[in-house]
Design brief:
β10 (171-177) and β11 form a beta hairpin. α9 crosses α10 (318-326). The protein is of the alpha+beta class. The chain has helices at 11-23, 61-79, 99-111, 121-127, 147-160, 203-209, 285-292, 295-303, 305-316, 318-326, 381-392, and strands at 2-7, 29-33, 49-50, 84-85, 89-93, 116-120, 135-139, 143-145, 164-167, 171-177, 180-185, 189-197, 216-228, 239-242, 254-257, 263-266, 270-271, 337-350, 360-363, 367-372.
Length: 393
């Protein structure tokens, strides 16, 4: 009998396991991951940004946990000798029409208690000499790290406290009983006193297996990237972001220097035809039919038809993708870019067509379900782990 069983071996599930070992030493903890290795999906395809929390609604979990997490993540990396760089980033208004949006973002950053600075055009060029912009915000509390390395350290800490981590075990059945939970995988059956669902792209399905019919569905969005060729990396010193569309939950194509020195450009955001599909050709009939038959998605599609079509065009046309990048760095040319691995974002969508804007944690009788934890969940993972342990304590 385990005291706590966690479904999902991504960065959030592992952070919960680590937090449990610290608060309840001696308790029996199990992490179940269906893939053969940990952090295989959203975590392992993450661009590695330590986010500040500037974008998020003041007082929200995202805003609070990102701000706290940007500090606790750096402290964790320092303690465990994990390479990171607190390099800062610029958010750039490329024309006069974007100035009011940039100002709104600046005010939101102040409300969220961040140390940020306005940059005029000349000051911006001192920070990023190749950027096209009329004004910018410099966000100092932004950095880069390898989140898979962080996840592996979380796992090591769990094991050091006698926790069990089983990969290659997919949960098929869950029975929540008055005295505990029975969890059946493709290999064996476990008894646990409490279940914590951190299954990311499969979190709504795990909640349903446990008997909770939540009014939301996970919709997968694929983010496609390019990387700058080595001889063009000098065009980007650190992180360069556009002013985001305030009505769309994605940040627009941007440039990210990674901890290994490579520079990533992207992503777009297109509907995934498979929940865990990283290629344009990845299709799962069940996943696709489930999304297309969901009234919430149909309402969302109608609302964002124009934006969605633009994302799809960028997906099939490198020329259009490059044109988006050139708004930030005009010197970029198609031949400067090589295709890079895509990422997938698990975004919860309500049946009324609204996107779930904040982290969503649902309390069960003998279980707890993290049903929406997209970016900045990696940044905030330590704080999310603490919050979940606080709730079940």
């Amino acid at each position: 009998m385990y005291d706590y069983t966690i479904v999902g071996g991504g960065i959030v599930g592992l952070s919960v396991g680590m937090a449990l070992t610290k608060k309840y030493p001696g308790k029996k903890i199990l992490v179940l991951e269906k893939e053969q290795e940990l952090a295989s999906h959203q975590t392992g395809h993450n661009s590695g940004v330590i986010h500040s929390g500037i974008y998020y609604k003041p007082g929200s979990y995202k805003a609070r946990f990102a701000k706290q997490g940007s500090q606790s993540m750096v402290e964790f990396c320092q303690k465990h000798d994990i390479a990171y760089d607190n390099c800062g980033k610029v958010i750039v208004a490329t024309n006069e029409q974007e100035r009011p949006l940039l100002e709104n973002l600046y005010q939101r950053g102040l409300e969220n208690g961040l140390s940020i600075k306005r940059l005029n055009k000349e000051e911006l060029l001192e920070v990023e000499p190749h950027v096209n912009g009329v004004e910018a915000i410099f966000v100092s509390a932004t950095g880069i790290v390898d989140y898979k390395m962080v996840s592996n350290k979380y796992a090591e800490i769990i094991k050091d406290h006698d926790g069990d981590i089983h990969c290659g075990e997919e949960v098929n059945q869950i029975a929540e009983l008055p005295d505990g939970v029975t969890v059946e995988t493709n290999k064996q059956t476990y008894q646990t006193k409490f279940l914590i669902n951190c299954a990311g792209l499969q979190s709504d399905r795990i909640a349903k297996l446990a008997g909770y019919h939540i009014d939301m569905k996970i919709v997968s969005f694929r983010g496609e990237y390019f990387k700058l060729k080595p001889e063009k990396r000098h065009l980007v010193r650190n992180l360069i972001y556009p002013v985001p569309n305030p009505e769309f939950p994605f940040l627009g194509v941007h440039f990210t220097r990674e901890i290994n020195g490579e520079v990533e450009a992207g992503p777009n955001a297109v509907l995934g035809f498979k929940r865990e599909g990283y290629k344009k050709t990845d299709i799962n009939v069940k996943d696709l039919a489930e999304v297309l038959g969901y009234k919430g998605f149909l309402r969302l599609a109608r609302k964002y038809m124009k934006v969605g079509m633009g994302e799809m065009v960028r997906s099939v046309s490198k020329k259009k993708f490059v044109e988006s990048l050139q708004q930030l760095i005009p010197e970029i040319r198609s031949e400067d870019l090589v295709a890079a691995p895509a990422g997938v974002r698990a975004q919860a969508l309500n049946s009324d067509g609204t996107l779930v804007d904040d982290f969503q944690i649902i309390q069960g009788k003998k279980s707890l379900h993290v049903c929406n934890a997209p970016s900045p969940a990696a940044t905030a993972s330590i704080e999310i782990g603490k919050e979940i342990v606080r709730r079940i304590g």
